[in-house]
Write a structure and sequence with these properties.
Blueprint: H1 10-21, H2 24-36, H3 40-68, H4 72-84, H5 90-122, H6 131-142, H7 145-165, H8 167-196, H9 199-207, H10 216-230, H11 236-242, H12 250-278, H13 289-300, H14 304-338, H15 342-363, H16 379-406, H17 409-416, H18 422-448
Helix pairs in contact: 1-8, 1-12, 1-14, 2-10, 2-12, 3-4, 3-9, 3-10, 3-11, 3-12, 3-16, 3-18, 4-5, 5-7, 5-14, 5-15, 5-16, 6-13, 7-8, 7-14, 7-15, 8-12, 8-14, 9-12, 10-16, 10-18, 11-14, 12-13, 13-14, 14-15, 16-18
The structure holds phenylalanine (PHE).
């Protein structure tokens, strides 16, 4: 089966878009980013970014994709010609393809960690675990490049197989059941954290405002995380929008995606931080945070091995519905460019992403002390930093500028189904002025700081 001309229903589209948005970004990245960003300062800026920058750009990206109806790169070339005076707007799509490949490369490695944890949990390896033992187990896994490579390869293989068949066949069916289950599981973990963890400390850490901690670095990290988590600025939503029928309302869909995405991230945080404080862990532990904390919970709750195994399966599903949305815009663009078969291209791109992913695998062992640009950043840190903090925000701002300044008022109003609505005026102000101004301001402060 090849790329669907459109999603089979509005519900299927929402599920696929939510599937793309909700992933490792919510459960793995958001909590540790909040932890290294000082807790509430990060969380509050993050929420502001989602609402004022993320949602408007998500609407814009879906709108542009649906309007052009082609693969991300060619959509932007075509729209650029028609509305922007130059096909050079295709740059947005081209940069997105590169960014997607880079993200996919490390995403697969981290999703591999989740996969590796499934058999560990079912085998009861964490029974009675403490923060020390789970930390040691995680460290031991990272020290073994072969293990990491095995799970990375397996995950990439799964992603390739799904994209090769076409997104509709596999993804639609899986997400409808499994995403709600992940959500319920997160709610359950919050319940566990509330009973046994230091809930007050965890909650205060995430939500008690402390504006003195809001530095340009925190704003950049939070903005980057908002783009990453909503899957915007990279062409994913351009591609998904291009398969959408005209009848679907883009504003309400965008709000649903953002709500689902944000609630999953907040739930993950509220589940994890109470466990962090009750066990004397360091909130700025870094990328291992969820693997070290939640396994303490699973190791000590009744039936924890089963729940834990299921949880990591669900995390894997959340991850694969996102990774296919990283591979999809690359394959769709190359398919249009080369005329080659979707399945062949899926394999080739998957192989390239796998090879690039080896740099991330080694960043946690052989190359742990290799910091190519200094600043204590490994190759993995660099790929993550450049994509989330530079490429996605840049792509997002260009999308906002294009939608706000090149597309004419009437075309966007009718495409968004918001003719005459005051909310349309608000959207237009946000994409024309606020989103670009904010990103430029933060970048400038950072450069001069
Ligand atoms: N939004 C996904 C997550 O939070 C990651 C992703 C980024 C997917 C960009 C597609 C495009 O895990």
């Amino acid at each position: 089966m090849s790329t669907p001309a459109h999603w089979s229903s509005r519900f299927a589209f929402i599920m696929a878009a939510v599937g793309s948005a909700v992933g490792l970004g919510n459960v793995w990245k958001f909590p540790y980013m909040a932890g290294t960003g000082g807790g509430s300062a990060f969380v509050l800026v993050y929420l502001g970014c989602v609402l004022l920058v993320g949602v408007p750009i998500l609407m814009a990206e879906l709108m542009l994709g649906r309007r052009a109806g082609q693969s991300p790169y060619y959509s932007m070339v075509e729209l650029g010609r028609r509305f922007g005076g130059t096909p050079a707007w295709g740059f947005i799509g081209a940069m997105g393809v590169v960014a997607a490949l880079m993200i996919l490369s490390f995403y697969s490695v981290v999703a591999g960690w989740a996969l590796a944890y499934v058999p560990k949990l079912f085998a009861g390896s964490f029974a009675g675990a403490t923060a020390e033992t789970t930390g040691a187990a995680f460290g031991a896994m990272l020290a073994e490049p072969l293990t990491l490579t095995f799970w990375h390869a397996l995950f990439m293989l799964g992603t390739v197989l799904i994209v090769a068949r076409g997104v509709q066949a596999g993804i639609e069916k899986a997400v409808v059941w499994l995403m709600p289950m992940l959500f319920l599981m997160l709610v359950m973990l919050v319940g566990y954290a509330a009973v046994t963890g230091d809930f007050a400390a965890g909650f205060a850490y995430m939500f008690r405002p402390d504006f003195s901690k809001v530095t340009p670095d925190v704003v950049i990290a939070a903005a980057g995380q908002a783009f990453f988590s909503l899957s915007i600025g990279i062409g994913t939503m351009l591609a998904y929008g291009s398969y959408l029928p005209r009848t679907v309302s883009l504003p309400s869909t965008s709000v649903i995606i953002a709500l689902a995405d944000t609630s999953c991230a907040l739930l993950a945080g509220v589940a994890i931080f109470p466990i962090v404080f009750a066990n004397g862990l360091n909130p700025s532990e870094g990328p291992g945070l969820v693997f070290v904390t939640l396994t303490v919970a699973f190791g000590n709750m009744p039936g924890g091995s089963i729940f834990g195994g299921i949880f990591f399966i669900l995390l894997f599903v959340a991850a694969i519905t996102s990774s296919v949305s990283l591979l999809e815009p690359i394959v769709a663009t190359l398919e249009q460019k080369t005329g080659m078969k979707r399945s062949t291209l899926s394999w080739l791109v998957g192989l390239a992403a796998f090879a690039l992913g080896m740099a991330t695998v080694f960043s946690f062992n052989h190359w742990a002390d290799f910091h190519p640009l200094g600043g204590g950043r490994t190759v993995f840190d660099l790929i993550d930093y450049v994509t989330a903090n530079i490429m996605l925000p840049l792509g997002g701002v260009l999308i906002a500028l294009f939608a706000g300044w090149c597309m004419d008022r009437d075309t966007s109003a009718s495409e968004l189904g918001m003719v005459g609505s005051p909310l349309f005026t608000a959207w237009r102000l946000l994409v024309r002025f606020f989103a670009p101004a904010m990103v430029v301001l933060v970048a400038a402060t950072k450069l001069t700081a």
